[in-house]
Backbone:
């Protein structure tokens, strides 16, 4: 590496005339540490060569600090999302009913359309405005809704324990059939849930794990 820096003109040690060895004095050793520091920051060899020709590089170091802090924040956000995805896959089990405590959630109706499978870019990790569907067994209608503030809500799903079932789906028909099977489960007759509101949505944190499938979750408060 040091030979490379010499070839690129970043280091200019003198040669011993008899042995032909490079001689590194205190200045050269200091310069090596300076180059290593700048490389660790992320500067290229050519950029470092230009910087070392300046009398003072404090301005560039301050700018580099700002960029590194921005990168740290970006990586922390990505790490947080990855942890959320991994944790969701630990909580929700495919084709199994699990019980999850949910805080109160507010929704507003977008319009009353039939259930439509979300078509999304699975490479995107960023949060998207997610569509949910509220199914009422008595009217056999799916209302399309999105999360909203309490001030703008059409209705709320109250805090409490929810029975949740997640499944891989390829068609809207599969979701509709799965909802019917879900609410016919003897569990709901045991706890005497009458005309339950069923929340249906693509569980994006689970879908992101699969390359060629979508995962939908069905929820009902118990």
Residues:
């Amino acid at each position: 590496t040091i030979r490379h820096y010499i070839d690129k003109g970043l280091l200019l040690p003198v040669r011993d005339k008899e042995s032909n060895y490079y001689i590194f004095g205190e200045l050269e050793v200091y310069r090596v540490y300076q180059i290593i520091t700048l490389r660790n920051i992320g500067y290229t060899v050519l950029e470092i060569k230009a910087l070392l020709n300046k009398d003072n590089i404090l301005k560039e170091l301050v700018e580099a600090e700002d960029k590194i802090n921005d990168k740290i924040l970006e990586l922390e956000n990505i790490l947080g999302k990855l942890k959320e995805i991994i944790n969701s896959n630990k909580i929700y089990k495919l084709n199994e009913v699990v019980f999850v405590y949910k805080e109160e959630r507010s929704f507003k109706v977008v319009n009353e359309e039939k259930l439509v499978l979300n078509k999304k870019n699975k490479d995107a990790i960023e949060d998207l405005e997610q569509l949910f569907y509220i199914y009422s067994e008595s009217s056999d209608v799916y209302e399309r809704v999105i999360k909203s503030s309490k001030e703008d809500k059409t209705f709320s799903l109250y805090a409490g324990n929810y029975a949740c079932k997640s499944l891989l789906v390829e068609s809207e028909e599969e979701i509709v059939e799965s909802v019917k099977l879900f609410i016919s489960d003897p569990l709901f007759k045991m706890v005497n849930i009458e005309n339950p509101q069923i929340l249906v949505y693509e569980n994006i944190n689970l879908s992101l794990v699969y390359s060629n499938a979508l995962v939908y979750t069905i929820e009902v408060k118990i």
Q: What stands out?
A: The first strand starts at residue 14 and ends at 15. Residues 58-91 form the longest helix (34 residues). The helical segments are 2-7, 26-41, 45-52, 58-91, 172-183, 186-190, 204-207.
